[in-house]
Structures are given as C-alpha cells and as structure tokens.
Amino acid sequence: MSGPSWRFCPQCGSPLEWGEVAGAERQACYTPSCGFVRWDNPLPVVAAVIECVDRDGAILLARNHAWPEKMFALVTGFLEKGESPEDAVAREVKEEVNLDAVSVRLLGAYPFFRKNEILIGYHVQARGEIVLNEELAEYRLLRPEQLRPWPQATGQAVRDWMLSQGMALPEIVEGNLFAHADL
C-alpha cells in the first residue's frame, strides 16, 4: 500500500476494497461489470543536474517557495503525455529557470518511494539568462566541487554526475532530502 486509500471506483462509483491482485495487495472494484484495479504505479519525473556552460560550468540548484530556507535541489518536473524524457527535462529547465539546453545526457533512473515517483536524472548543459518562474524562490550557482550529494531522490543523480566527472564524493549527509544548508 504505497499511497492513500481511495474510497470509490473512478470508473463506476462502487466502493473499492483491498485484496490480492497480481501478487500484491491492491485496491480493486469487485463489481462484476467493472473490474477496475488501482495499480498505483509510480509517476515519471525528470530531474536536471544543470551545468551552466556560460557561467564557468557552475551547477544550478533551486529552492521552491514551499521549502525551508537553505534547502536547494535539482530542477524537476513531470513527464507529460507524448513527450520524451529528454524533451521533458529541457522543457522543465526552460520553464523553471529560463535556460536553453545545449546538451542532455542520461544519468540514470532512481526510485523515490516517499512520493511514489521514478526520477529520470539528466546532466543538462544549458545557457542563457537565469529567470525563475513562480514556483521558485531563489537559486544558487555552485562550483562542482562544492556539491554534496544527498542520499535520496535527486541526490543520487548528483552523485552519479559527480562520478561521471571523475570527482571524489564527499561525505553524504544522511536524512537530508536536499543539498547542504551551507550553500
């Protein structure tokens, strides 16, 4: 049971019940004419390790308005219908920080169980004038050696990017979902 329970079937309106379906405990509609199953599959999310090629290769981290001060992470967004993950990450970088992707390279896929998401991480080389959209409060530009990967979610993409660059990994800050507070 990963997400919150639903009370009613979205197809026919009958009450949903928990039961074993395809080898796992899932909510299902047992009305004979319906048969809906709530699979609760993870949502695909893209994440960008943004390297600002026109700012000496600085890495951009951003803070969402909803987050506490000094908590920064990668730019992320949902994959939209009909869009490739590569197009989605370039679109998110443009929408959230107004940078144009010059190159997009896959880092890996990472489970984010807490939010029932699968993160598809990319190294995005980008350029342009940084302009934050309404979701973001502020950003930081860090030299690559200032990065400190965090153990969950997008921090794993940061770790893999650092390794791909031949960088030594600093100590990971356990329990932190975001970059260090010493930005």
Automatic annotation (TrEMBL):
Gene Ontology BP terms: NAD+ catabolic process; NADP+ catabolic process
GO cellular component: cytosol
SUPFAM superfamilies: Nudix
Keyword Magnesium set for record: yes
Domain of life: Bacteria
PROSITE patterns xrefs: NUDIX (PS51462), NUDIX_BOX (PS00893)
Domain Nudix hydrolase: 42-164
Catalysed conversion reaction: a 5'-end NAD(+)-phospho-ribonucleoside in mRNA + H2O = a 5'-end phospho-adenosine-phospho-ribonucleoside in mRNA + beta-nicotinamide D-ribonucleotide + 2 H(+)
InterPro entries for the chain: NAD-cap_RNA_hydrolase_NudC, NUDIX_hydrolase-like_dom_sf, NUDIX_hydrolase_CS, NUDIX_hydrolase_dom
GO molecular function: metal ion binding; NADH pyrophosphatase activity
Cofactor: Mg(2+); Zn(2+)
Keyword set, alphabetical order: Hydrolase, Magnesium, Metal-binding
Family designation: Belongs to the Nudix hydrolase family. NudC subfamily.
Protein name: NUDIX domain-containing protein
Protein's organism: Zoogloea dura
